[in-house]
Amino acid sequence: xxxxxxxxxxxxxxxxxxxxxxxxxxxxxxxxxxxxxxxxxxxxxxxxxxxxxxxxxxxxxxxxxxxxxxxxxxxxxxxxxxxxxxxxxxxxxxxxxxxxxxxxxxxxxxxxxxxxxxxxxxxxxxxxxxxxxxxxxxxxxxxxxxxxxxxxxxxxxxxxxxxxxxxxxxxxxxxxxxxxxxxxxxxxxxxxxxxxxxxxxxxxxxxxxxxxxxxxxxxxxxxxxxxxxxxxxxxxxxxxxxxxxxxxxxxxxxxxxxxxxxxxxxxxxxxxx
Length: 273
Prior knowledge:
The chain is an alpha/beta fold.
């Protein structure tokens, strides 16, 4: 199997954690000045990036999908140009709003991206099911993943995908999560080296523990979804991001950080998008 493998130099001492920045769901528009749901998504992303730079250094950036609301080549180029201001390794995956024709793919959609850094392995999975809001990890990818977990069994592992594996408690949203949850869990739940599964999609901070694995979602750099809502509902929480610190013994710390306020006036009358 051809691998898309990157090796990032590890921190100089084992007691220094590997620091990851997770960005998710920017929902950018083709025109950087345009508004979506009452805010400017590109301006909001810029402010999140500037805020996160207060917490440098990071070893790499993981972007967990829905980069574009209007998925043109220009939209993706604007995103890449903005994230390039970090001057750090950056890895990204598709969300349900992203378009395969214009998406700046790092690897074919059926082949996971593998990043080795210190004693940790990060595997980026594509959960986009073309034309669907909900997600699926294809049987081909699951076969790749099973082989990779065997090949890199000596590394503690972080998996990243767009769609949430477990319900977050929003009735309208939970139907649009990962549709082949059980097949995914059967692939990973007995693999003791798998510590974390990161996702986007739900536009909120969420933690669910299944066996020894923590399933973590991330706020959007754009608008947020109101937790525990029966129907589509936007939240007043400002944009945010997640920082993870991975230690050489397999432990980790994480925190969500947010802007002090939204960049614009949220359109709470919006009932879908």
